[in-house]
Amino acid sequence: MTVFSIATSKGAERGACHHCNLVVARFFVALFSLLAGLASAAPYTPNSDDQILVRLSPAEQALGQPASAGSEANAIRQAREYIDYARQREDSRFLGYARAILSPWLGSPSSPPIALLMAEIEQRQHQFAQAQTRLTKLLERHPNDGQAWLMLANLHRVQGRFEDARHACRQGASTLPPTTVVICQSSIQAMTGQLPKAWQTLQRLADSGLASPGNEQRWLHTLLAEMAIQQGLYDQANNYLNAALQDAPQPPYLVYLQNDLRLMRGDNDKVIAALQPWQDRENALLRLAIAAQRSHHPDADRWQQAYQDLLNAAQQSGRDIHLREQARFQLQVSARPEAALQTAQANWETQREISDLRILLASAAASGDQDAHQQAMQFIDLHGISDAPSQPLQDASP
Amino acid sequence: MKRLLCCLLLVVTGMAEAHKPSDSYLQLETRSDSTAVSGRWDIALRDLNLVLPLDTNKDGAITWGELQRQQPALNGKVLAMLSVNAMADGQTAGCPLNLTRLQVIDHVDGQYAALHLQGNCNMAPQRLDVDYQFLFQQDPDHHGLLRLSQDDAVISTTFSDGERRQQLGSDSGWQSFQGFIGQGVHHILIGYDHILFLLTLLFPAVLIWRTGGWQPAPSMTQALGQTLSIVTAFTLTHSLTLALATLGIITLPSWLVESAIAATVALGAIANLLPRYFPRRWVMAFVFGLIHGLGFASVLADLGLTDSGVFLPLLGFNLGVELGQVAIVMVFVPIAYLLRQTHFYQRIFVPAGSLSIMVLAGVWLVERLN
Questions:
Q1: So what's the ipTM on this one?
Q2: d(CA A127, CA A134)
């Protein structure tokens, strides 16, 4: 690693030779990945019987032998706990355990709570089509299930089907609390040319204190933070994030949103300080690798390699669904814009949130791809999306 | 209800889970002239703990001692979830597996138990029938990733809840050999930089440079002679480096090889524009063939065959490359021969074609260095 930094800093001193720098850097990256590949993965025999191989979290200890949960109510409670744990600890094995607990109760038709939990698991595993079918079938039988409408609205929204999303919010309006419907509609308005209106509505809602404390409040603050970022109001975004992150446990999604905001503002040191304790989490590792590379942190190469290893393992198992993150890594860390664009375009096939749009625009610009830029701009123009962070990229056609 | 509701909204974003789902890594090896099966099965300790209670003293940590004490259960209960059967000539025979050695291995998401396996089938397997039942009951999202080496071929496959039993076997040697010939043909035909390099060298093969100008080659024999010398020289050297790189004797980063290939195309075009400085075209084909061979090797490596059974894939792929090359030569050279006396071919096609190839290759070179 030392050799690498010396070689590149020499290149930088020469200044004039921009390419040499890059070429030398690439050579060493290639060399190191080769060495790392050779060094890893040989079985070994530990020296002592007392050597600890793995520590189990209390939730893992409690798993024991999860056979049947006995009753449907138990299964629902247990699956809910597993899904929450999976989200909070970002551990997808627990989604599998939740599925196992629910499987004896998957009659046709299964009860609404079971169907909703299954749809949630499927969404989290990016099986969007399955989740949508499950929710649609549920709503055919129970058209007044507000929660199902809400989930369907979100499913449509994250995939860029805004008209369907709006329709689902409206359908749920008769059974959902009014504040929930307002938030649901505003989240779609923010992506469909009515950002100022949505921003005002939600700010008023936040000031009114009508949103129920706890999760609804937190959801409201999250959306406000995202809308503030979309308008380039970074200080306000930070305030809303701090409000949303006040109570433990802090949802990882919000922690990453806050650190993405820090990355936008160049606060690399804060990102590293905040996420260093989460080095075993893939999403944290991505942000650490970006921040470390930008600030020439001594662990930059290690974090980059660690994330690359995770990508390789995901690819090997045929479950590389983290395309948004992968594209960001390829663009912002490994400096492979063409590869990033390919990944960003594949990601765009399934996810169309504002961050998916940003990575598509950024990788199109970096690889000078006019068609991909056009593709993103058509979506922006069609829905009237405004987004300050990607505005320079929108203006500059490659 | 309300709690559930809002929770859902926070989770329904596109963000991915951090820790990867559960996978086990299974390697098996068989030979068609032996009844033995050997291999290794890496199982995450967290996963194993769902099937066998490993943390016997319940202190929240699994130690090497605790794992070792479960050897009998690993050999019995866990290996019973994996059954391997040999298939040959319409018959099937079981291959009971035994745990011969227990070790530990580090994978990206933590420590795994490495179970070394040994078994005997009573007959040499042509194909293998594998039934994988591990962990699906506890975690339906679990995958078993199998890598089977059979003689020189490697087959990879994935077991999942919906696909627990699979029959695996390599195609017959001749079928896979044909497959590699096909790949070789395909890759020279779509590898536009190799085609352009070859064509650039062949542009003047039907001409001779005399007193500051191109003259048509006086005879078919002479044109054929020049063509053959170029093609043979190119074939000799690119076959050499293709073999050396595939065997792992030479390794160069692909951006370097790709850039060098672009440079050879540009130089070939320059040679056509300044023919008096490059009288022996076959020398150029000979030297630059070394670089193009490395490019072919990276394609062959992408087909995933560098680590076993190198010889037949290499031979087949190389043969395919040559067949594709012959096809290109047989289309181009007769046309060039017929046109060789025309003003168009000598004064326009060769210089303008070479110039545009030079520019194009220059652009590639800059792109590939970036």
A1: 0.83
A2: 11
